[in-house]
Amino acid sequence: MSLLTVRHLSAFYGSFQALFDVSLEAEEGETVAVIGANGAGKTTFLRSVAGVLPVPAAAVSFGGDAVGGRPAHELAERGIVMVPEGRRIFPSLSVEENLLVGSYRRRPGRWSLPRVYDLFPVLAERRQQPGPNLSGGEQQMLAIGRALMANPRLLLVDEISLGLAPAVVKGLYRVLRTIADEGTTTLVVDQDITQIMGLARRVYCFRKGTVSLAGRPAELTRERIAAAYFGL
Amino acid sequence: MTWVDTILQGLLLGGLYALFATGLSLIFGVMRIVNLAHGDLSILAAFLAVVVVESLGWSPFAALLVVVPVLAGLGYALQSLVLNRLLGRGILPPILVTFGFSIIIQNALLETFSADSRRLDPGGVETASVALGSQLAVGWFPVITLAVAVLILVGLQLMIGRLSLGRAFRAVSDDQETAELMGIDHRRLYALAMALSLAIVAVAGVFLGIRTTFTFASGPDRLLFAFEAVIIGGLGSLWGTLVGGAVLGIAQTVGAKLSPGWGILSGHLVFLAVLLLRPQGLFAKARRVA
Fold first, then answer.
1. Which of A45, A74, A203, B7 is the most buried (most CB within 10 A)?
2. Is the torsion defined by CA of B126, B131, B134, B136 positive or negative?
3. Torsion A224-A174-A106-B173 (CA) sign
4. A185-190 and A154-157 strand pairing
5. Where are the alpha helices (DSSP H) in chain A?
6. CA-CA distance, A71 to B213, in Å (whole number)?
7. For residues B170 and B160, is the Cβ–Cβ distance under 8 A?
């Protein structure tokens, strides 16, 4: 059975409709990629699943329960944890304090401060520094580490490579691979498809608020992806 | 020597002002809202202490055991039932609603306790003093007040700096939405912050009632002094609040020494001078709770 099932999800910002009838599934332990251009609705989709945007209860089911529209903090307690677009590091907290906020709910699980420091040794070196002192790549590591501290059952990662150098992105994908190998179900959003196609078991391409293509990476040709991505 | 005495008395008076200001500073630091009923709630606490003292025969200090939890509960209810409904609608609604509460509390106190001025009698400690050398003496009670203010600030600082709850306060103050994503229920946290703020206000109100007489209409002055202490010290800085209280207290006693009518006025003048010369306050930290 799927861990996450999204059925016929429509989402709105006021009267503006950002998502039209989107359906998506992620099985336990699977890594799912959501790709698409700017404004395709990827971030709106993640925010709907994470409980930031109000959506109908039946549109999102998680572990068998209809959880659409539940508040974000309740979903975090259930295990849906998001790495938001732009990292959103808490500026007045140190690196270590940022990580500790992730464990606020004390969800039991395999991740702990020492294990996150093993995964990101640079964070251990800079643990006492203010969060904003880190570079963009380090802040992304911190945002991922902070989410792991919540011991997610479903990890949502928004725009993982946005504004980062290719070498840094490569490193982050290696970490995502490790996290996936540990068995955490992961949903990754990225505009750059070069890395994500190697990681994901299942790919959804968004365009203009709808799913324009879905399938396994091996089954999809570059031409079909390009057509779905740009609407050619 | 009399000037040393004046400044010392002002410093001790500042302890009381810091007690009032701390709750206000905490609420502003965590939620960015201003509670205009702050002063009236402290007077409500003082009247509550009067009831406990008169009906149970306890000392006003023992009455804190009742008044502090009651005010904390009131704060939790006020935030979760009323103020949380106003979140995300700008800065004006909370100001209007707490202004309304201020008027309601004053009138309820007038109806219940009449316009008579009251005082809490702790049985002698309020007039006892300790000699510092041959020409200087300080009252025990102002010393206790300052010590309690410092203890509360140290405790609050430790809580905000070290405990998980304090980290959550700072995280929510930084970025409410991301804090939600990490599992922090900001509404519940706001209710806890208001409970903590009113618990401190309860202490301030009872100490005020021991130090001086009060009536149903004493609240707004307390709010004004608390505001001035917070602004002088710098918004969002807890230690600044203590310094702000001390500066205000010293300004008032020095002014009153120059001429009996100048006490309150010189406090206001110092406040205005700080606003003109250093509007961010003496210890401002732009975005931090502590």
1. A45
2. negative
3. negative
4. parallel
5. 42-50, 72-78, 95-102, 113-119, 121-125, 136-148, 166-181, 193-199, 222-230
6. 48
7. yes
Pick from A76, A88, A97: which is nearest to B183 by CB?
A76
Q: Give the structural domain span for B269.
A: 2-277
**For chain B, how many residues are written?**
290
**3-class secondary-structure state, position B187:** helix
Alpha-carbon distance B219 to A218, whole Å?
Answer: 72
Place of tokens 């618990």: B199
ipTM: 0.93
Amino acid B289: pLDDT: 47
On the 0-12 / 13-18 / 19+ scale of CB atoms within 10 A, B90 is: exposed
Alpha helices (H) along A36-83 = 42-50, 72-78
Residue B290 lies in a domain: no
Express each pLDDT in B192-238 by its tens digit.
Answer: 999 999 999 999 999 999 999 999 999 999 999 999 999 999 887 88
Distances, alpha carbon B114 to alpha carbons A62, B106, B107, B216, B217, in Å: 59, 11, 10, 8, 11
Average pLDDT over residues B252-272: 93
Structure tokens given for A126: 């800079």
Buried b or exposed e, range B158-168, using 16+ CB within 10 angstroms: ebbeeebebbb
Residue B215 falls within a domain, yes or no?
Answer: yes
Structure tokens at A25: 């599934």
Instruction: Say what the pTM is.
Output: 0.91
Q: Do A101 and B181 touch (CB under 8 A)?
A: no
- Residues of B within 8 A of A72 (CB-CB) are 177, 180-181
Nearest to B167 among A52, A84, A101 (CB): A101
Are the C-beta atoms of B176 and B187 separated by less than 8 Å?
A: no
Per-residue CA distances from B112 to B44, B98, B139, B202, B290 (Å): 11, 21, 33, 19, 39
For B36-60, give one letter per residue: b (16+ CB within 10 A) or e.
bbbbbbbbbbbbbbbebbeeeeebb
Please answer yes or no on whether B183 and A146 come within 8 Å at the CB atom.
no
- Could you tell me if residue B282 is inside a domain? no
Per-residue pLDDT of A175-227, as tens digits, reads: 999 999 988 999 999 988 888 988 999 999 999 999 999 999 888 888 898 88
Q: Which two tokens stand for residue B21?
A: 């200001």
Q: How many domains does chain B have?
A: 1
Tens of pLDDT, residues A46-92:
999 999 999 999 999 999 999 999 999 999 999 999 999 999 999 99
Enumerate the residues of chain A whose CB falls inside 8 A of the CB of residue B177: 52, 72, 84, 88
Task: List the CATH number of the domain containing B223.
Answer: 1.10.3470
**Residue A12 β-bridge partners:** A17
Instruction: Inspect the interface and report whether the beta carbons of A90 and B289 lie closer than 8 Å.
Output: no
Contacts of B180 in chain A (CB under 8 A): 51-52, 71-73, 76
